[in-house]
Every structure is written in structure tokens, then in C-alpha cells.
Design brief:
The structure is a single chain. This protein is an alpha/beta fold and 225 residues long. The chain has three domains: 49 residues, no CATH class; 43 residues, no CATH class; 106 residues, 2-Layer Sandwich (Zincin-like), CATH 3.30.2010. Helices cover 38% and strands 21% of the residues. It is built from six helices and ten strands. The strands form three sheets. A four-stranded mixed β-sheet has the order 4-5-7-6, with helices on one face. Strands 1-3-2 form a three-stranded mixed β-sheet. Strands 8-10-9 form a three-stranded mixed β-sheet, covered by helices on one side. Strand 9 and strand 10 form a beta hairpin. Helix 3 crosses helix 4 and helix 4 packs across helix 5. The longest helix is centred in the middle third of the chain and has 28 residues. The chain is globular. The chain starts with a strand and ends with a helix.
Length: 225
């Protein structure tokens, strides 16, 4: 069985994680013998295979963008056309329907779009988080949009910070709302008990549809564009 090992000085035990793209990751304390890891993986072989073959895991990853005119860029559930033009545009221009980028910046398109999406995501996600936090009667210390989470859409830290992957801004609004409410609800209830899901359902009645959308389309979000 193929697996990757990630060592950490802070870990005390060995843990096995099957990512949404079906990669098997073994997280182990620094210096933990590879032979012992192999033994643990063998003992958990049936469990690992069950997780790898789970229908919620993603199919093959879609191809990445080449950043040429005519390509579609997903933003808040809509496909926006990319136009590469001869104009002297600094960075990215967005008119609500299409993106424009200067031909001279085409080679830098990936980095320019990541920067643009991160900034745009924060302007949309932060006001939603404030609104839902008020409805839920919770307070968070900080709200951030990051590019460090690829296999997690969002997180809520013990210090009360809510963090979101910039990639979720590609999803439809009801999916973004679900992810925001999911993390904020953890400020009230740490587990996923029926009470937790009841809180989520009150704020986002379509949360089940959002979970299905992520199951079926999450691989599109994980690719940068």
C-alpha cells in the first residue's frame, strides 16, 4: 500500500488520514521507526481501503487552467470568461461577468489570480461571518482567508479564530454560507452532535445540499483554477 509519512515533533501518537483525493497520509512523531509505521498501516489495511474507496472521495483532478482567452473562471458558483487582452492592465480586472488580464502578464496569471481571489474572498466572507456570528450569538477573535489549507475548506481554532481557504469563493453562495456557519457553530458546540446540526440547519436550511455539492465538486475547488 502506498502512503506518505509526515513527521512532527509535536505528535505523540501515530495517526492515519485518507485525504479527499484518496492519498493516504501517516502522521507520526519525529524519529518514529518506519518499520513500526508499516506494521500499523498493515493492521489498519481494511479500514484504509474502506476510506480510499468511499464514494465521498474525489474522482481524478480536473486539469489546471492555461490562462488563455475563452477559459472559464469559477467565482461564487458562476463561470466567468477570461479575456487576455493587449491593454495595459495592472493585475486583474473584473466587471461582474468576465476577467481581463494583460497579455504581458499572462505568464504571471496564476499568482495574480491567487492574490485577487484571496482579496475578493475576504471582502465577501468577512461580512457573512459577522452577520452569522450575530445571529448565532457567538464572537470570534479573527477571520482570515488563507492559501495554506488545501484539503480543508475552513477551521475554527481553540482561540476562537475562523479561517477559510480562498478556494471556497469559487463555490455557490449557499455552500460558502454553510462553511461559515459550520465553523461558527463550533464556537458553541465542539462536536457534530444532533444539536450542532440543528444549529446549522436553522441558519442554512440547505446545508445538506451544500454537503452534496462539496462531495461532487470539491475536486474542482482544490485545483487552484
Amino acid at each position: 500500500m502506498v502512503y506518505e509519512i509526515e513527521y512532527s515533533k509535536r505528535r505523540k501518537t501515530v495517526g492515519i488520514l485518507v485525504e479527499r483525493d484518496r492519498r493516504v497520509i501517516v502522521k507520526a512523531p519525529e524519529g518514529f521507526p518506519a518499520s513500526r509505521i508499516q506494521e500499523i498501516v498493515e493492521k489498519k489495511k481494511n479500514w484504509i481501503e474502506e476510506k480510499v474507496n468511499d464514494s465521498y472521495k474525489y474522482p481524478t483532478q480536473p486539469s489546471k487552467k492555461e490562462f488563455v482567452s475563452g477559459e472559464s473562471m469559477m467565482l461564487m458558483g458562476r463561470n466567468c470568461t477570461l479575456l487576455v487582452v493587449d491593454e495595459n492592465i495592472r493585475g486583474i480586472k473584473y466587471d461582474g461577468f468576465s476577467f481581463r488580464i494583460s497579455k504581458k502578464n499572462q505568464e504571471r496569471a496564476h499568482d495574480l489570480f491567487v492574490a485577487w481571489y484571496k482579496k475578493y474572498a475576504l471582502t465577501k466572507i468577512e461580512p457573512m461571518a459577522k452577520s452569522f456570528a450575530q445571529k448565532l450569538g457567538v464572537n470570534y477573535n479573527g477571520c482570515s482567508v488563507t492559501d495554506t489549507m488545501k484539503y480543508r475548506w475552513a477551521s475554527c481554532t481553540p482561540k476562537g479564530n475562523v479561517n477559510f481557504s480562498w478556494r471556497i469563493i469559487k463555490a455557490p453562495v449557499f455552500v460558502i454560507e454553510y462553511l461559515i456557519v459550520h465553523e461558527l457553530a463550533h464556537l458553541r458546540i465542539s462536536d457534530h452532535s444532533p444539536e450542532f446540526w440543528n444549529i446549522v440547519s436553522i441558519q442554512v436550511p440547505s446545508y445538506e445540499d451544500a454537503k452534496i455539492w462539496l462531495r461532487d465538486n470539491g475536486n474542482v475547488l482544490e485545483v487552484d483554477f
